Amino acid sequence: MTDYPHAERLLEAVIFASREPVPLRALATLLPDGADLDATLAAIHAHHAGGGIELVEAGQGVMFRTAPDLAFALRRVVEVPRRLPRVAMETLAIVAYHQPVTRAQIEEIRGASLSQSTLDALLEADLVAPAGHKEVPGRPTLWATTPHFLVQFGLKSLRDLPRQTDLLVEAASSSADTHEPGPADP
Amino acid sequence: MTDYPHAERLLEAVIFASREPVPLRALATLLPDGADLDATLAAIHAHHAGGGIELVEAGQGVMFRTAPDLAFALRRVVEVPRRLPRVAMETLAIVAYHQPVTRAQIEEIRGASLSQSTLDALLEADLVAPAGHKEVPGRPTLWATTPHFLVQFGLKSLRDLPRQTDLLVEAASSSADTHEPGPADP
Amino acid sequence: MADIDSAPPTEAFIVQLDGFAGPLDLLLDLARAQKVDLANISILALVEQYLAIIEGARRIRLELAADWLVMAAWLAWLKSRLLLPEDETAAEEGEIAADVLAARLRALEAIRAGAAWLNARPQLGQDVFERGAPEDFTEIDRSRLKLDLPALLAAYLAARRRSGAKRQYRPKPILYWTAQQALERLTRMLGSVPGWTDIAAFLPERRETPLAHRAALSSTLIAGLELARGGDASLRQDAPFGPILIRPGAEHRND
């Protein structure tokens, strides 16, 4: 369509194929005799003006970049969902099965202390929420799962969780003394 | 300085940004409503005609690459891997024409054993790849060309390979010269 | 066909035998040297040239690769069939074998032409070049959580199993009211009671078993004695096995 001088074609190709911005000095050595570097670069720049790509200066050299205003249209968002850390998942599961439940109870069931960051992560993900206080000295906060928890796990209600007895065949008897009722129990 | 429609700018940018060919389907999803893919690509192609880079179809998509006639000048600037030796090219041609093909079949056609270094070179260049096993005793590996093979040689599909009978006529008419030009040359 | 015998390039071939990728490669080159369509080459002339080259090569280098010699033996057999067939069957065998050889040469020639065609194309990375510095507009969004029920259940089982395993080593929890607990309760409550009060009033509300009740009573008595020792409370029992009364303050102050 346009009439390209050889110098312009050559520099365009070299800048295109290079991995790094091409230093002006390197471009100058490539130019055919008599061709002017600035004029050639200006011609390349003009040829692409208003197009999808543009010639830009970078450091001591030049390079092609896609036009910045197109970045939004070209942006492709790839969702890579995170997994909850194991500790958070276990805590969530205990809240789901034993709610409403105090922090101390969670710690007893897991047999390990519960860090604030784990609880924060579950709160931030809107998976657990405070559900009043237990009426014992110190009035500790009770924790329960949120409606969002049900949505996230594709459950219609807490009753959709498998019963503890179906899940914990051998642990069911040993758990009888401390924390019996599962969410499916009335 | 041409007046660019938005669709043209957008596709130019997205094809330019990628090192690999961009599948036509991906381009179609990016296209603004009402814009025609073929027409837009034709416009981009025309805009770059005669320039240092050109739009070509390769594999299932389109890509920009430098103009072939600049090869000599570019080889001085851009690092170029060694060309495949004749044995490797012949082996590649056998795989291309007879795929999927076993090693024994390749050796039968060339009347010589296939060296490990030749196979390594083709694998390393991502030109051939295993394509299952032949269901005969010993279940030998079958070999086929890769998608990159098409890109490397600027082919849209394996159907772009000239027919062997046409090649023989070509070879016979150009008598016993060593390297006759292929039909793709102007 | 006239110049086949006039220009046998045997000397050159002997020297360059290593340059050929096997006997078939050499045969094809010899065939091409006949400068005619591969369909019309003289197999007999080809065979004689090959045998001459191998013969010459053996004079120079005894260690000739096996496949060159195998091909030579087969071609010698083919030559005998083509030149002096013992009978009609032998002649037919010779013709078939010659056809097979010609077909193999044509197949190899076609592949060579294919390789040449590929070689003549502008190759990416050799003659034409892709974008050197590609741009990636992909953004990774890790804000969403990957949650599924099996993982939740597995986590629950893991938590229960671990704590279950731990529980086996734990001593049985003390369910009884300790003297320490009684002391705290008594200290807290005694201030709000003006006069003599049955010590049983200071027992905790929850006493599941008679044993727990007796344990709580004795703990509270010990706590009362402890307070009396420090002068913070006074104790009194009016009759044997009667109720034990307690009030804040030392004994002598009220007498």
Automatic annotation (TrEMBL), chains A, B:
Pfam families linked to this entry: SMC_ScpB
Gene3D superfamilies: Winged helix-like DNA-binding domain superfamily/Winged helix DNA-binding domain
Keyword Protein biosynthesis in annotation: no
Spans through the membrane: none
UniProt keyword annotations, A-Z: Cell cycle, Cell division, Chromosome partition, Cytoplasm
Top-level taxon: Bacteria
Keyword Cytoplasm: yes
PANTHER family named among the record's database cross-references: SEGREGATION AND CONDENSATION PROTEIN B
NCBIfam families the UniProt entry points to: SMC-Scp complex subunit ScpB
Name by which UniProt lists this protein: SMC-Scp complex subunit ScpB
Organism: Acidiphilium iwatense
Gene expressing this chain: scpB
TrEMBL record, chain C:
Source organism superkingdom: Bacteria
Alphabetical list of InterPro entries matching this protein: ScpA
PANTHER family from the UniProt entry: SEGREGATION AND CONDENSATION PROTEIN A
Official protein name in the record: Segregation and condensation protein A
Organism for this UniProt entry: Acidiphilium iwatense
